[in-house]
Amino acid sequence: MRILVTGAAGFIGFHLATRLLERGDTVVGVDDMNAYYDVTLKEARLARLRDGRAKGTFELVRADIADRAAVEKVFGSGRFDAVVNLAAQAGVRYSIENPHAYIDANVVGFLNILEGARHHGAGHLVFASTSSVYGLNTELPFREDQNTDRPISLYAATKKANELMAHSYSHLFGIPATGLRFFTVYGPWGRPDMALFKFTRGILAGEAIPVFNEGRMVRDFTYVDDIVEGIVRVIDRPAAFRVFNIGNHQRVELMAYIRAIEKALGKQARLELLPMQAGDVAATEADTSALEAATGFRPATPVEVGVKRFVDWYREYYPRVRRMEAGKLRRLWIAAGWGFVFLVIYLSLTPEPLPAPSVDNFKTGHILAYSWLMLWFAQAYLKLGIRLVVAFALCALGIGLEYAQLLTPHRTFAYSDMVDDAVGVAIGLVLAGTPLGNALARIDSSRRRPTA
Ligand SMILES: NC(=O)c1ccc[n+]([C@@H]2O[C@H](COP(=O)([O-])OP(=O)(O)OC[C@H]3O[C@@H](n4cnc5c(N)ncnc54)[C@H](O)[C@@H]3O)[C@@H](O)[C@H]2O)c1
User: Fold this and answer.
1) Domain of residue 110, residue span
2) pLDDT: is 353 or 312 the higher one?
């Protein structure tokens, strides 16, 4: 199947794309790689999707789904057998601070997806909704036929709007559409703004962790593999408009969840008990009988098992990131050492007695330094893609400038000499992960566009 997954670099999108690739589907991912949370985590997820080990093929289009023309182009690239819309501005509390991000991504963006499905067909449109739509409902477990007209955050309101928009498009244009109300999803490669991630980080750092409503919260925590299993089963069963809960159908007290994290980490948490936060609901629990009747599946991973898998991933992933950072530093030291050796050789080759410092000596030194830098980039940063190419080009420019200045007769120092030094600084900026370097890296990965 050829499947469009929006939000493919996100937590759930990454797991879903992984699963679809394993079974041999062609996955076109769309993600704008926004900085709502650590972009390197999104990039690391993408790197795994691209490693080519799975049967299926993956390509990413870096685009904002609120960009009408970009979405139209994606749908124009060929018919999709299914479209799974996971791209959204997620998070309840952030919607109070930054409401426009929610309307742009979740309402305008979703309309663009609906329009794409309308004009190009979509086999089956599956889209993410949330348990937050139950808002002020207090009758647990939440069933799909309960009233959801009383959301208490703009995030929930946009997701409820998605359900209504999808219903009207499904009715008008005959698009099979299924909305999935996810209940607090957790697991490896999770979202850093969610409780499990924050608690794990805080406990390991020995910091007090913020516990809202003084711990009197109840959540239906759902392991990400169960969410993915539910989505895949739903994708394969298109039908006219439906909405399903996907939850673990269990009430877990927040304090029990924290105890499971402590147990997995082997370390006790320090708690900072805080009042309830605006926009949050006190309790959730899913009734999943409708999902089970339609797909024969209901989530079942116990919280202790899922939390342990998250903690194992976290312990493996973050030291690896730190090791990579440490590795870069080590290479920098090695490079500095080589630079010193180079300087000593250069000085020992110059005629005795050492000539007085002159423009020519100075320039020759620069040329050697640039040449050495090129060699160093080649061995140290082979995986930097376009950054490496740009750094090479800048080095070559530096060498050219130095030669031009060297060949100019009767030279004296001038401000113009600083131009090539500026080139040297630019090389550093490109490579050091500055906004310029990151922008180049983004251009690099957006080169992979869908084939028409
Ligand atoms: N994780 C949960 O507990 C949970 C619960 C209920 C509902 N959901 C919904 O499930 C979906 C996936 O959530 P997640 O936890 O994986 O979140 P996530 O933030 O990790 O993933 C969303 C991805 O979409 C991308 N994105 C955001 N806005 C975009 C835009 N305008 N254009 C293109 N890409 C955009 C982001 O860069 C991100 O990679 C979301 O729709 C979310 O609202 C999640």
Assistant:
1) 2-319
2) 312
